[in-house]
Amino acid sequence: MNVPVTIFTWIMALLPILLLLVLMVKFQVPAMKAAPLGLLVSLATSVTIYRAGAKLLFYEALKGVWSAMVILIVVWTAILLYEMVNEANAFGVFREGLQKATPNELLQILIIGRVFVSFLQGITGFGVPVAVGTPLLVGLGVHPIGAICICLLGHAWGNTYGTLALAWDSLVLQSGIGSDPAVLLRTGLWATGIIWVWNFITGIAICWIYGRKEGLKKGFFAVAVLALVQGGGQMAVSLFNTTLACFIPCCLSFGAVLALSRMKMYADPWKIEDSPVMDRSEKKTVVSDGKETPVMTFNQAFSPYYVLTVITLCILLITPIKNFLGQWQVGLSMPETSTGYGFTNEAVASFSPFAPLTHAAFFLLLSALFGYFYFSRKGWIKPGGGGAALKRTNKKTLPSGIAVTGFIVMSKIMGGTGQTSVLAQGIADVLGQGYIILAPIVGMMGSFMTSSNMASNILFSGFQFTTAKLLGLDVAAVLGAQTAGGAIGATMCPGNIVLGTTTGGVPGHEGEVLKRVLPISLAVAVGTGIFLFLVLVVLGA
């Protein structure tokens, strides 16, 4: 890398990220306004400090817009699915059914905010767990901000081996450790070990959000069981099949939570009346038009989500179907670009190819269409209801579109001009072997910047590998910390937060969400780094 790594260039690279954090956390500026400001600052530093020309900026911005489009169609289809279900008034039925299945309110929240969103992360990813899980929790009576925080925390542990291990495969490919089975195995053990702890901590955090000390006391055993099944199961399955390392434990956790609901400590009705996260106000009822409406069952209310699950599993897990549908791809041809310092972005024949028929948005769209036709046929969606749901969907998507596009274009410009590399290189140069403290934070920073653990691994795996070698650190531990840090950072990704505020109906409150989840993520990432430093450097293990 020819870009000079000085305290000045490092601070200038940090400036856009710092600005976002200050605006969103300190001043509660909505993401729709903060993202363009961060983008403008990154453009200014790219031109004045990092010697980027118009051609480079144009193509990096184009990459950002393309990547944002792929995410935004998930936003639109996820909101459409929610609006169709909401138009049929199915969430009330769903809530009543879940209360009958398990009268313990905390366990109900864990079923959706831990088990179901983890399952979605295992098979789809791309923000779908937050986009789908948030309105489901709101339907249970959780305040939107609390619902978003719970979904962010609940799905994050699956961000390395979820989406059928896309992030893990990126780590292996970028670092080149696939040719060394011993290092590959130890990297997986470090990653799954850290994530196992992270799984348990996020479960504890969900209980705390629900009911503080009383919630912790009631939910501790359930969280411990789920952590054993999910975190421990992921470690075990990853030893022989990384593709299904998240998916299989997520399936098993459904059985675990069902068993928990039969236990004496969770079988009886229980809730915290003054829970800070629950909305105890009377829900508005829909006025009847005088016509008899068929009674909706729980399974009928949840049927679009059943369809979503079946479609996703059939397409992604049945290889011939996946290969057949995945052959239709669209990507952008990108030329080679360089800064004045010689920092080069290689030419790409097909940048980030998009396979529409195997993408999460396609699954969500089919599920939404099923919901519309099924509920309409049953009389639960009245004439004109589908159009009303579509209008609400379009209205909700616009603010998130501006925010997500701004965040991702900013991250692409920072990466394409060398600013991201300077941030990481500067940390390594100053700390020496103490760099291992920040190894998980680098992964977390990558997730925050790109809203993707996979993208974080693509950005930083090679750098982390090289740095570990130069400093004499355990490569497996550093790479494991990289992707585990990316999973930790999934709780605070602006893109995921925007998805939650959009489907939760509270756009503009992204700063409030980030303020709540940031301390948890940062504390765990720093704690992980300190543990690695003590074990590997101080004790020399």
UniProtKB/TrEMBL annotation:
Uptake of L-lactate across the membrane. Can also transport D-lactate and glycolate. The chain crosses the membrane at residues 6-25, 37-59, 65-85, 106-128, 134-153, 189-210, 219-236, 242-261, 305-325, 354-375, 396-415, 435-459, 471-497, 517-539. Keywords: Cell membrane, Membrane, Transmembrane, Transmembrane helix, Transport. It is a multi-pass membrane protein. This is L-lactate permease. It is found in: Cell membrane. One of its GO terms (molecular function) is lactate transmembrane transporter activity. Belongs to the lactate permease family. The keyword Transmembrane applies. It comes from Candidatus Lachnoclostridium stercoravium.
